[in-house]
UniProtKB/TrEMBL annotation:
Protein name according to UniProt: Endoribonuclease L-PSP
Entries under PANTHER family matching the protein: 2-IMINOBUTANOATE/2-IMINOPROPANOATE DEAMINASE RIDA, RUTC FAMILY PROTEIN YJGH
Alphabetical list of InterPro entries matching this protein: RutC-like_sf (IPR035959), YjgF/YER057c/UK114 (IPR006175)
Pfam families in UniProt: Ribonuc_L-PSP (PF01042)
Membrane-traversing stretches: none
GO cellular component: cytosol
GO molecular function, one term: deaminase activity
């Protein structure tokens, strides 16, 4: 059986974050088969360091997420699946979930998987999504 070459990845970069993604060796998002697969977004400052305040970190993660979605011609309304990673969810989940309605929109909501973790490279919250690309 002959190997069929994979087409190059259709990568989406939000404005002003290319150096950070290049440094860390990953794509912020990839378009494939009508969907946008967005890498986990965190509340990082311009230099890549964590925003220290939890609520500010969550808001900044959503700001970064929305910039990636916008660069692909999407919005959070196009998101169909969400995965969140939370350090110490017993302590932090309720605080985080009070911020979510500011970004989440109205029902029907996307699917959600929440995962408690012990370490996120100095961050306390990360969000990754899959969005349906507009036709």
């Amino acid at each position: 059986m002959k190997d069929i070459p994979m087409p190059p990845r259709d990568v989406v970069f939000p404005p002003g974050r290319q150096a950070l993604y290049k440094k860390n060796r990953y794509s912020p998002a990839v378009r494939s088969n009508g969907f946008l697969f967005v890498s986990g977004q965190v509340g990082s400052r311009a230099d890549g360091t964590p925003e220290p305040d939890l609520e500010s970190q969550v808001r900044l993660a959503f700001t970064h997420l929305n910039a990636v979605l916008e660069a692909a011609g999407c919005s959070f309304d196009d998101v169909v699946d969400v995965t969140v990673f939370v350090v110490d969810p017993e302590k932090n989940f309720e605080r985080i979930w009070q911020i979510v309605p500011d970004y989440w929109g109205n029902a029907p909501y996307p699917t959600l998987t929440g995962i408690g973790v012990t370490w996120l490279y100095g961050f306390q919250f990360e969000i990754k999504v899959i969005a349906k690309l507009p036709s």
